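Late entry, written up from scratch paper. The run itself happened at the end of the previous shift, but nothing got recorded in the book at the time, so transcribing now.
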Amino acid sequence: LSTVYHRLGRYRDARSQFKQTLAIAREIGDQRGEATATGNLGIVYKDLGCHEDARVHFERSRRIAREIGDRAAEGRALGNLGSAFGGLGRYAEALARYEDNQRLVREIGDRVGEAYATGGLGGLWRVLGAREAARDALEDALAISREIRALSLQGYWLRGLSEIAAEEGDAARAEALASETLGVARKVRQVGDTALTLAWIGEFSLWSAGIECARTALDEAVDLLRQQNRKPELAHALALLANLPDGDPVAAEAALEEAGEAGNTPKTRYYLWKATGKPDHLAEAKRLLDYRVEHAPENHRESMLKTVRLNREITEAWAEHGGG
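Output as recorded:
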């Protein structure tokens, strides 16, 4: 039941069920079950935008997995830790966990784990501005996912490749990959991935002045995110909508306040600044970006600022409107 709740986007119900499973595993001394339930709880916290809570659970899951010698479970925990550290903006630590994860799953021949690890690295390379490495990793992850017929994984890597194509100015390829991503998410009935893909299509459409396409995609994304009670992503989608001619910045700001720290990202703050012109949004976007750059591998800090479109725009806006 907990897995069904999670798949349907009913994250709080899933959290309650996973907590019950964890309590039972501890009561009967089932360490393997405890490691699994702890990791599943971490995934729910991650999906709710609670990355620090997720990190704590993934660390516990990894510790238990190592104690009982379950290398596959340890690999999953390492990959999840990479995602959690990425969500926290601690990119150097995220990179280390993903690399450890990839080495481990390759040693034990875990192809599903390898797809996750390689794709996770690709997503992180993209955030760090290393486009070529990101594209190679995401294409490798996509190839593995197709080889093992894991359709549900393919959408993750397709969306990442779409984002890279958009960064490179290849609008046609970005649109085609986004459409393919959306088709996968709908086919496997992943409500959360459908919503996130629609939000990405909306954002990309704003870049390319496709106002009506942006409105259609974002309206559906907002509906799905509200159904799932995914407050951080809802705040971001509403911030994007606020940049349309009849957008509602007040609603977006209210959503951000309700999302709390989990919704406070450079991207959301930057789009709120564009919609409202309020200096505090730009200042917060710059502060959050600076933190992420500071916690990135030193050799990638320059590429983060120069190659990643959002980071470049925040930096330029701060120099023009806030730096003085």
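DSSP finds 18 helices and no strands in the chain.
(Scratch paper discarded after transcription.)
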